[in-house]
């Protein structure tokens, strides 16, 4: 069995039940964390309608959250969800802004990783480079 994430009559993603359930649960976590609606409606009769405007705002907020944090564990936990969300957003016609934000709204860092040295994976490439690669890969793997 599978479920459909649709915009109008267009199917944007047709994942298995387990992948859809996990994605929607992670979406709820980020909605609560960011205080924003995702634009994903309820899963009714194996179909979830998408509001592209709300999805666009949510996707930009999640990407900005991912880009701003220097915390290695938060990055690891959020990367797969963020990449999946960005594929869905792009399929919904949302233009993704990959330019990292300049500063936090109040100028303070949140969730700072305390470590004696940064992980090699964070020092070797900008955060968005690996995320862009994952988005391209997932776009090929996510059935419509």
Automatic annotation (TrEMBL):
<dbReference type="InterPro" id="IPR045732">
    <property type="entry name" value="DUF6086"/>
</dbReference>
<dbReference type="Pfam" id="PF19564">
    <property type="entry name" value="DUF6086"/>
</dbReference>
<protein>
    <recommendedName>
        <fullName>NYN domain-containing protein</fullName>
    </recommendedName>
</protein>
């Amino acid at each position: 069995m599978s479920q459909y994430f649709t915009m109008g009559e267009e199917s944007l993603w047709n994942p298995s039940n387990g992948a859809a359930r996990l994605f929607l649960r992670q979406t709820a976590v980020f909605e609560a964390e960011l205080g924003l609606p995702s634009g994903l409606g309820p899963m009714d009769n194996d179909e979830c309608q998408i509001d592209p405007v709300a999805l666009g705002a949510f996707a930009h907020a999640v990407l900005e959250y991912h880009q701003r944090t220097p915390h290695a564990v938060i990055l690891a936990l959020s990367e797969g969800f963020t990449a999946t969300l960005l594929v869905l957003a792009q399929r919904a016609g949302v233009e993704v802004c990959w330019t990292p934000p300049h500063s936090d709204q109040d100028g303070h860092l949140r969730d700072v990783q305390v470590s004696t040295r940064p992980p090699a994976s964070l020092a070797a490439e900008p955060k968005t480079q690996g995320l862009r690669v994952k988005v391209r890969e997932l776009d090929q793997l996510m059935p419509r």
